[in-house]
Amino acid sequence: MSGSIPGANIHWPALIVFVAPFGLVTVMGFVAARWRRPSSMAHLDEWGLGGRQFGTWITWFLVGGDFYTAYTIIAVPALVYAAGAYGFFALPYTIIVYPLVFAIMPRLWEEAKRHGHVTAADVVHGRYRYRPLELAVALTGIIAVMPYIALQLLGIQTVIEAMGLKGEIPLVAAFLILAIYTYSSGLRAPALIAFVKDGLIYVVVLTAVAAIPMRLGGYGAVFHAAGTAFAAKGAGGLLLRPAQMLPFATLALGSAMAAFMYPHTITGIFASSSADTIRKNAILLPAYTVLLGLIALLGYMALAAGVKVANATQVVPALFAMIFPGWFAGFAFAAIAIGALVPAAVMSIGAANLFTRNIWKRYINPGATAAGEAQVAKIVSLAVKLGALLFIVFLPTQYAIDLQLLGGLWILQTFPAVVLGLFTGWFCAPALFLGWAVGIGGGSWVVFADGLKPVHSVMGHGVYVGLLALVVNLAVAALANLVLRGGRETRLETMNSF
């Protein structure tokens, strides 16, 4: 195979090896409908949450599978390739996130289990009984996850093109496979496939981080060559510059707080069998962070290998195509493509659950039965994936990347509504809604004013916009809460005086 992407000819060894594991997980996706099958799948608890029965290991693979996505494997090395050490912000963020999961998610699970909640917006409505806030959380989740699904399809498209396949037909075929088995098997399909996905990813990454440096003269040579490449282009570097440290830290913190607010990660949490299962996973899931650090190093290896690409997202496939024989490159591409199927399925299920429970049943058909809810969720999951496919086919890729950036900012603004009520009853719903609106509106305005950049300069220091918006969100909510509580107390005193 050549080191460029994509070649004019189909790389048959890679394609043949690619098809075998991809076909295996397709079969597994349909078989999953019979795995731990209940008497009926016509209920969101069964189709959308797998019966809330997943134990420690299944949850570990499922949550890891939908949190560490195929686009992570593509995008993190691409950012390291382009910007150097700055691209490693994903490492501290995936370390910071697990203490938050340990402290917050068991309480959220207990609340959901006790009251039969399926989504985060269900939890918010159950606690506050305020429809505007519930709708805000639901719409934010749906909109924020849509570009994320598109980026998973972009990951599949990238490796398909790396094997020389042109056009949209291969991507459409992958979409149809994903759509059909998700429709029939629900959350059980990605939960079962996650075992294969993670096994393949571990084999590919561990092989790559051992074999590629050996080919390039060792890690010392890799770092030296990468440092020289950054110096030659006058951008990036092996170490953070002083001006990058605050943006790096705030990106890590803000991303960590946002990560488990997404519908797909909440879905993985709610599908767990117990609060202790979640605590155990918060302890075990950092093993993926070790893998992520190794994946990030592929960006330096690509620089050392002299990989040249038109788009940084092509770096990992180009590196594998250059270094490995065709059969192993095909195996690696299959791992990446399968790594997209798991999160894309869970994301579409999470979005479908939100629409069904918090929009369809609340505003369109309040009398919907459990079977009716499940059917609507299946149809919406198809529509969500179709929308993501059309996005990738007809719009520039950069739009999906930009919207995913905004999605992180938006989903972070749901943190107060979802989390604060688990620990304090001080905030009232209208105050939280006002804080959400200001955070969404103000944060989006700043990002667009800065040319869709994630970092904004505050008194000469760069800070992640999502975290800035969250601070304003909380400040507005606190101030509004004081005003509303003061007004309520005044009315009560007036009434008591009569």
What is the topology?
Elements (H helix, E strand, L loop, with lengths): L11 H20 L12 H4 L8 H12 L2 H14 L6 H26 L4 H9 L2 H32 L6 H17 L2 H29 L2 H15 L8 H18 L3 H8 L4 H10 L1 H20 L9 H9 L2 H39 L5 H25 L2 H16 L2 H9 L5 H21 L5 E4 L2 E4 H32 L2
Antiparallel strand pairs: 1-2
Helix pairs in contact: 1-8, 1-9, 1-16, 3-9, 3-12, 3-13, 3-16, 4-14, 4-16, 5-6, 5-11, 5-13, 5-14, 6-7, 7-8, 7-16, 7-17, 7-18, 8-17, 9-14, 9-16, 10-14, 11-18, 12-16, 14-15, 16-17, 18-21, 20-21
Q: Top keywords for this entry?
A:
mainly alpha; two-stranded antiparallel ribbon; disordered N terminus; 498 residues; single chain; 2 strands; globular; 77% helix; Sodium/glucose cotransporter; 21 helices
State the helix count. 21
Residues in helix, %: over 70%
CATH architecture: Up-down Bundle
As for the CATH topology, it is Sodium/glucose cotransporter
Number of strands: 2
| N to C succession of SSEs | HHHHHHHHHHHHHHHHHHHHEEH
Going by helix content, strand content and strand pairing, the class is: mainly alpha
CATH superfamily: Sodium/glucose cotransporter
Largest sheet, strands/sense/barrel = 2 strands, antiparallel
Distance between the ends: 87 Å
Uncertain ranges = 1-8
CATH class: Mainly Alpha
Number of domains: 1
Mean pLDDT rating: 88
β-strand amount: under 5%
Largest beta sheet: strand ordering: 1-2
Gyration radius, rounded? 23 Å
Shape: globular
